[in-house]
Design goal:
This protein has a 6-stranded mixed β-sheet with strand order 3-2-4-1-5-6, sandwiched between helices. The chain is of the alpha/beta class and 183 residues long. The protein is built from 7 helices and 6 strands, in the order αβαβαβααβααββ.
Length: 183
């Protein structure tokens, strides 16, 4: 079932500020260098490219990206930046790999008001749990977050307040994008 990207773009434009919460793309199951060194599979490379094209096509290239320092997250972002170009300001954060929810909330709370769209690329279950905390539980897509996010999924959250002012259940779920649902 394909998602209507024009509809998603129109819904996103209703909000003054957006947060795009992404789980890294599909990875190899293990790596000799340990978990933090796992690489993307060929499927993961394709997923990252498809998501980047979809976001770019909807004019949703983020102003700023905070990315986990784990190789699979960095590799996901590298693939996406081929489509995004050099417009987003990028920060690599070790704490997005090893400090869980508090690291996501730190990113949100320190986001400057001039940033209208922030992307966070991280890991499960942290990303879906953070979305559950941020999103209004009355949103129709909220239950999808209970199942966790598949690789390369992106939850687009919107609100009118600057991102640093977002509070529990204060944002709306614009869409949950999954590579398999892209046209």
């Amino acid at each position: 079932m394909a998602i209507d990207l024009k509809d998603v773009a129109a819904r996103a434009r209703r909000y003054g500020h957006l947060v795009l919460m992404m789980r890294h793309a599909k990875t190899e199951s293990s790596h000799a260098g340990g978990d933090a060194k796992r690489e993307l599979t060929d499927k993961g490379l394709k997923q990252a490219k498809a998501i980047a094209r979809a976001l770019s096509g909807m004019d949703l290239v983020p102003d700023r990206i905070a990315c986990s320092s784990a190789r699979r997250a960095e590799h996901t972002l590298e693939r996406m930046l081929r489509t995004f170009g050099d417009a987003p300001h990028v920060d690599y954060r070790r704490n997005l790999y090893d400090q869980g929810l508090s690291s996501v909330f730190d990113e949100l709370s320190t986001t400057k008001p001039k940033v209208h769209s922030l992307m966070i690329i991280g890991h499960e279950p942290t990303i879906s749990m953070a979305c559950q905390w941020i999103a209004d539980p009355e949103e129709p897509a909220f239950d999808e977050l209970n199942l966790g996010l598949s690789p390369a999924s992106v939850v687009i959250l919107g609100a009118d307040e600057p991102i640093a002012a977002w509070r529990e259940h204060g944002a709306h779920i614009v869409a949950v994008l999954k590579p398999k649902h892209l046209p």
